[in-house]
Automatic annotation (TrEMBL):
Superkingdom of source: Bacteria
A Pfam family: Beta-lactamase
Species annotation: Cryptosporangium phraense
Residue ranges constituting the Beta-lactamase-related domain according to the UniProt record: 7-353
Record's protein name: Beta-lactamase family protein
The organism's taxonomic lineage, starting at the top: Bacteria, Bacillati, Actinomycetota, Actinomycetes, Cryptosporangiales
Length: 372
């Protein structure tokens, strides 16, 4: 697309790929280079780190288990996650970590899917005892890099030792709920998270390049990832890609909040599943009711500034127009617009592309203009 070309030419990112599917007609456009040295073109089949775009994929798997009554949307999760049983809630953000009250309600699957379970990333505000305790226990995951030191069980044990920020269902806190959800799905299914996603989503959709690690024979398709310097804006290497990539080995802790890698074609298949109401290639993987719930706003509590003007379904954001999807903090985006039967995918290797970034905004403005 011309939009991506203009931003690449302006130095926003070395390169990227876009996919636009409208009423079944698909256009793929790879632009620019794989790295700052311009050693190779950016490939249309590049394997990129999709960050928080992992969340809707994991949410879809959760709904599959819910359809089979292996999990209930409003059932307490402490049957499978005893670490979260009898939660305590901080009386105020500034309170000491032992200044708590009992939770009014247990944590449920619905709470995890909607980021209302009670704990997550801190936005704004200064230092607080809970923030310091969370940092000391290393439970606040930053930008995704495969974590090889702690198991999911150990991470959840540490999370469960802390009080919640707010009562379940009475606030919106981003990020960590998806990681808790990944552990829940693994325990409830008796599979590792990657096995579950492969059996339920990747294999049926033909997502052959999606996973928590990249096999050796595909590492040449992993471009470097870059992050801008907060002062100068200059790009520096976040993950070197190829044989130097952190994603060359399977992590001990597969992050359901941001650990997957994928490709444009794989993500298109996932977008087609949601646009099709749960049907793909003649097979129903999800019911229409589940997809409708997933892609409809489920949240009535206030949301952070970065999400203002949007709702939140199960694992993804919902625009007032009905468009739904989510972005990855390492430079990726997938949204679906049912009214025009459009799927838009934007993949770059520059981090820091929030919901309202110029590139993202220009990309969707152009798609909307073309639809008209």
């Amino acid at each position: 697309m011309n939009v991506l070309t203009s931003h690449v030419d302006a130095g926003y990112a070395p390169g990227g790929v876009t996919v636009v599917s409208r009423r079944g007609e698909v256009d793929v456009d790879a632009v620019g280079f794989a790295d700052l040295e311009r050693s190779a073109p950016f490939r249309a089949d590049a394997i990129v780190r999709i960050g928080a775009m992992t969340m809707p994929i994991v949410a879809a798997a959760a709904l599959m288990l819910a359809e089979e009554d292996r999990l209930g949307l409003d059932d307490p999760v402490d049957l499978w996650l005893p670490e979260l049983g009898n939660p305590r809630v901080l009386r105020s953000l500034e309170a000491d970590v032992d200044d708590t009250e009992p939770a009014k309600t247990p944590i449920t699957l619905r709470h995890l899917l909607t980021n209302t379970w009670g704990f997550g990333l801190f936005f704004g505000g200064g230092p607080s005892p809970l923030r310091r305790a969370a940092n000391e226990l290393r439970v606040l995951n930053g930008p995704p890099i495969p974590e090889n030191s702690d198991s999911p069980d150990e991470w959840l044990r540490r999370v469960g030792s802390l009080p919640l920020l707010h009562q379940p269902g009475e606030g919106w806190t981003y990020g960590l709920g998806a990681d808790v959800l990944g552990i829940l799905l693994s325990r409830a299914s008796g599979r590792s998270l990657e096995q579950l996603l492969s059996e339920r989503i990747f294999d049926p959709l033909g997502m052959v390049d999606t996973g928590f690690a990249v096999p050796a024979e595909k590492l040449d398709r992993v471009p470097p990832a870059y992050a801008p310097d907060p002062r100068s804006g200059d790009l520096h290497v976040y993950d070197p890609g190829a044989w130097g990539s952190e994603w060359r080995e399977r992590p001990t802790y597969p992050s359901a909040a941001g650990g997957l890698v994928s490709t444009a074609s794989d993500l298109l298949a996932f977008g087609q599943l949601l646009l099709g109401g749960g049907r793909f290639g003649g097979e129903w993987l999800l019911t229409r009711a589940s997809v409708s719930a997933m892609t409809t706003n489920q949240v009535t509590v206030p949301v952070p500034r970065f999400l203002e003007g949007y709702g939140w379904g199960f694992g993804l954001a919902v625009a007032p127009s009905g468009r739904f999807g989510w972005d990855g903090g390492l430079g990726t985006s997938l949204w679906v617009e049912p009214a025009t039967e459009t799927i838009g995918i934007l993949l770059t290797q520059r981090s820091g592309m929030p919901l309202r970034s110029e590139l993202y905004r220009d990309f969707w403005n152009e798609l909307s203009h073309q639809a008209v």
